[in-house]
Design brief:
- Helices cover about 25% and strands about 40% of the residues.
- It has about 80 residues and is α+β, with helices and mostly antiparallel strands.
- The relative contact order is 0.27.
- It has one helix at about 5-20, and strands at about 25-45, 50-60.
- Strand 1 (about 25-45) and strand 2 form a beta hairpin.
- It has a two-stranded antiparallel sheet.
- The longest helix is centred in the first third of the chain and has 17 residues, at about 5-20.
């Protein structure tokens, strides 16, 4: 991004991450409660202008339910 703006970067990253997850047929979308955004980190474009780089990660929601992990009964 050409400016340090965390909420704008978060919005752009959500769009990119959502597209990546949607491309994988095993997942139903993103669990946005797990979204983590890191940045900004100043970098320079080929013309020497300052750019701000952000990185984001999010856990996908699975289509199939995970196995039940309830406590085992005690005997």
């Amino acid at each position: 991004m050409p400016f340090a703006h965390l909420s704008g970067a978060t919005s752009a990253l959500r769009t990119q991450l959502d597209r990546q997850i949607a491309a994988d047929e095993d997942y139903a979308g993103a669990d946005w409660s797990t979204l983590c955004v890191v940045g900004p980190v100043e970098t320079f474009d080929p013309h020497g202008a300052v750019q701000f780089e952000y990185r984001g990660s999010v856990e996908p929601r699975r289509l199939a339910a995970l196995p039940n992990r309830t406590a085992r009964s005690r005997r």
